[in-house]
Amino acid sequence: MGRLLFLNTLQSSWLFMSSDHDTAFIDLRAITKRYAGVTALDSVDFTVQPGEAVCLAGENGSGKSTLIKIISGVEPATEGTIHIAGQERTTLNPRISAAAGVMVIFQDFSLFPNLSVAENIAFATQLSTHQRFFKARASRDIASAALDRIGVEIDLDARVESLPVAQKQLVAICRALASKAQLIIMDEPTTALTDKEVRRLQGIIRMLKDEGVAVIFVSHKLAEVLEVSEKVVVLRNGKKVAEGPASDFDTQSLTYHMTGRDVPIVPPSDVTAGAQTLMEVKGLGKVGSFADINFELKTGEVLGITGLLGSGRTSVAKALFGLVAPDSGSIRVDGQPVPIGDPQAASTARIGYVPEDRLTEGLFLSQSILRNVAVGRLDAHTSSGFLNMGDLAEEAAEWLRRLKVKAPDIEAPVQSLSGGNQQRVALARWLSRAPRVLILNGPSVGVDVGSKADIHDIIRDLASQGIGIIVISDDLPELLATCHRILVMRDGRIIDTLDGKSVTEDDLAHRLAS
Amino acid sequence: MTKLFPRDFWTRNETLVAGVIVLFCIIATLSDPRFFTITTVSDLLRASIVIGILAVGAMLVLVSGGIDVSFTAIAVFAMYSSTVLSLAIWPGIPWPMIFVISVIFGAGLGAVNGFFIAFLGLPTLIVTLGTLSIFRGFLLTFIGSQRISDLPPSMRDFSRGVIARGTTEAGNFYSIPWAVLALFFVIVLTWFILKKTMLGRSIYAIGGSVESARRIGINVKWTQFFVYVYVGALAGLAGIIHGSVGRMADPFSLVGLELSVIAAVVLGGARLIGGYGTLTGTMLGVALIVIVQNSLIVVGIPTTWQSVTIGVLILLGTGVPAYRAKRAAAQAG
Predict the structure, then answer these.
(1) pLDDT in tens, A79-100
(2) What is the DSSP letter of A267?
(3) Which of A101, B3, B8, B329 is deepest in the core (most CB within 10 A)?
(4) pLDDT tens digits for range B219-239
(5) Residue A209: pLDDT above 70?
(6) Residue B38: which of B159, B158, B170 has the closest Cα?
(7) What sections of the protein cross the membrane (chain B) (predicted)?
(8) Least CB-CB distance to B209: which of A110, A126, A315?
C-alpha cells in the first residue's frame, strides 16, 4: 500500500513536469488493462487536447473499445494514471466521466425511439440537475440551443423513430452538446451514412473543434478519418504502434500499421478473353423504386452497382434475387429466363445473394458455423429423407478452409466470430452451392481492413473461376479494387456505366454526388 | 391547422377506437333510441370505474416495457384483507381509512413484484404469473374464502354517495356514484406523473430503451420498482371500490378480468414492446370494452358473442396499425 502511494506521487510529480499535462483534456499514462489473464491494453499513453480531433484506429480486438471504456469510466484500468480536465481520477465511473464532459456516442446512438427529438436531446441534461418535475418548455429550449449550435434544423416534436439514421446521429451529437460535452467519442460514426451526410458530419466536427470540443473517432473508414482528424493513434494487439499528425498518414500506411502487414491495392485483372454472356437483365422496373435497369454480366466479370443511399441499388440487388418483386422486365441466366420475384427460382438458376445486413438477414447467429453453411446444401446431402451429416460437415469444413475462416471449430456459433469471418461463412454457404452468379450486397460492411482485403481477394479469385459477380457497395475503394465495370445509380435509374480500370476514386465520387 | 390535430392524428389507435365507439353508438341509437340516454351513459360510467383504474395501472406497466397480470389478484387480496381486518378490529372504521389500508396492502404486494423485477431482474410476465397465483392462493388459504356481505357500514355509506341521481322523463333511473371521482383522481394523478415529472418521463424512456436509459443515468431499478408499487396501490384502490360498490367482499371476484383490462389498454394504443401508451387511448379502450360487454345486446348481437367481438377488435385495432407500419417500412426500404 505504501509503495503504491509512493508510486502515485512519483508519477504525478513526473506528470506535473510534462508539458501536455496542464493543457490536455484527456491524459492517460501507461494504461494497462487485463481481463482474466488477457492483456487488452499494454501500457498505452494517450492524450487529447481541447478542440483536437483524434482518430483511434485499429482492427477488431486491438484494444480500441477497451480504451474508450476506460476513458468513459465503464471499466477501470488495471494500471496507469488518468487525468481528465487536469484532475487525476483515481476512481472513475460513467457518471463522473460524463460530469467531466466525456460523452460517448455509441454506434446504436442510445436514443429513445418513442420520445421526441427535444426530449432525447434534453433528457440527460435535465436529469443531471436532479429536478423532480419535467418542464417541456425547458426541454425544447435546451434542444433548440443544441441544434442551433451545429446549425441543423430538426422538428423538435418528431419522434426519433421516424427520423433517418443521419438525423438520429445529429440528435445524439446534440444530446452530448447539451450535456456540456468537452470530448465527444464517436464509435463508427460514418458506417450508416451516405457520402453527403458524411460531409455534413465532417463540417459539424470542424465547427465543434473551433468551439474547443475535442472528438475521438473510432472508425474503419480510413479516408474519412484522415480528412477530419488532426492526430492519429493506431493500436494493434493492445499496444500503441503509431501516433502522429494525420498528415503523416495515408490509407496505405494506416492499413500497414493496423494490420502489421502491407495490404496492396490490387487492381482487378482483365475479364478472360472469350468470356460469355452469363446474365442478361432487361427493362427491370418497379414503380416507386427503380426503372429501366438493363445490363449484361459476363462469366468471370465483377460488376459493381453503386449509388447513394436511396438510389435504389439495394432494391435492384434484391430484385435480381427475387426478394423484391419487380413490376416489369426480364432476367436470363445462360439464355434461360428466370421467373422474376421468386427467390427459389433464382436459387435454382444458381444465383446466390449475400445480403448487406448479415446479422439480421443473412445468418443464423446463434447457430453453429456448420449449420449456417449446411443449410444451403441440405437437398444435396439427403438420401431417402435422411441427412448425411458426415458429408455435410466435410463439405462445410472444406469451404471454411478455402475461405480461411478463423474459428475454434465448426460447431462454434457464428456470433462468436469477427465480422470478417461471419461474412466468409455467409459466402461459404453460397459457394458450396456452386453459383453461376453471386450478388454481394455490401461485402465488407463492418469488416476490418485486413479482412476486407482478404474478401476482395476472394472476390477476384471467384471471378477468375468463371463466376459472374455483382458487388453492390458505396465503398468506392472497394469498387475500384474489385470491379471491371461499375454502374452508377441515381433515383432508381442507371445514369452511368464506368470502366473499373480507368475511373478514379474522385471521378466516381463526383458522379455519385452530382 | 397542425395545432388542432397532431400530425399522426388519423393513424393513431386512439382515433380508430374513438371512431369505432362513435360508429357503435350511432348503430345502437338507430336500432334502439333509448340507447343514447343519460341512463346508459351513467351505467357505462359506473361499469368503467374499476376496470378503468386497473387499466391505468396496466398501461403504466406496458409503457415501462413490462407486463403485469397479477394486479387483479392484488386488487382482490387488498380488498378482502382490508375488509376482514376492519371487521375484526374496528367495524365502525370510516371508509377513507379502509381505502387507505387497501391501497397500502396493494402497494405492499406491488413491491413484491417490484423487488423480483427491478432488483433481481426477472422477466415481468413470469414474476407476475407467479405472484398472481401466490397472492390468490394465499388469500383463499390463510385469509378466507367466504363471501362477506356484512361489510363495515361506512363502506355501504360510500357506495350510496352519489354526485348526481334522478329519473329521466321517460322514467329511467340514473345515478353517478362518488367512486367516479376516484377514477378521475387516478387519471389526473397519473397524467401528472407521466407528463410532468422526470419520474414519468423516465418510465417512457425505460420503455423505449432500457440500455439507453441506463447510459444517460436514469435510475432504472428504482423507477421500475416505483411502477410496480404504484400499480399495486391502484389495484388496492380498484379492489376496495369494487367491494364497496358491489356491497360484498368476494375473494373469488376480479381475478380473470386481467386479460380484458390488458386488452383495453392494448386497444388504446399501448404496445407490448414498451414505450408507448397514453391515458386518452387507455380510457377509450376501456370505454370500448365496457360498451361491448354491456351494450352489444342493444344492436342485436347475443352476449355470447362478446368475447369474439373483443377478440376481433383487438386483432383489428392492433393489427391494422401494425400492418400499416410494416408496409411503410417495406416502402422505405
Answers:
(1) 999 999 888 888 888 888 888 8
(2) P
(3) A101
(4) 999 999 999 999 999 999 999
(5) yes
(6) B170
(7) 15-32, 44-63, 69-90, 97-122, 176-194, 225-245, 251-270, 282-301, 307-325
(8) A110
Nearest residue in B to A113, CA atom: B208
pLDDT at site B311? 83
Q: Note whether B248 and B254 are within 8 A (CB).
A: no
Contact A132 B208 (CB under 8 A): no
The long-range contacts involving B136-142, CB below 8 angstroms and separated by at least 24 positions, are: B136/B73, B136/B76, B136/B77, B136/B255, B138/B77, B139/B73, B139/B76, B139/B77, B139/B80, B139/B81, B139/B251, B140/B251
What letter would DSSP give residue B143?
A: I
Look at A15-29, A32-46, A420-434, B231-245 and tell me which has the smallest mean pLDDT.
Answer: A15-29
List of chain B residues whose C-beta atoms are within 8 Å of the C-beta of residue A133: 196-198
Over the stretch A328-359, which tens digit does the pLDDT of each residue have? 888 998 888 888 888 888 888 889 888 876 65
Among all chains, which residue has been given the C-alpha cell 333511473? B173
Tell which of A74, A106, A127, A286 to mutate to test the B interface (max B CBs under 10 Å): A127
* Residue A282 half-sphere exposure toward CB, CA atoms < 13 A: 9
CB-based contact A114 B275, cutoff 8 Å: yes
pLDDT at B299 over 90: no
Q: Which residues contact B297 (CB under 8 A, 6 or more apart)?
A: B303
Mean pLDDT for the stretch of residues A289-296: 90
Q: Are B144 and B82 in contact (CB under 8 A)?
A: no
The interface predicted TM-score of the complex, written ipTM, equals: 0.86
Q: What are the strands, taking DSSP E only, across A150-289?
A: 183-187, 214-218, 231-236, 239-245, 277-286
SS3 of A276, please? coil
Strand stretches in chain B, DSSP E: 162-167, 173-177
Tell me the chain A residues in contact with residue B202 when contact means C-beta distances shorter than 8 Å: 127
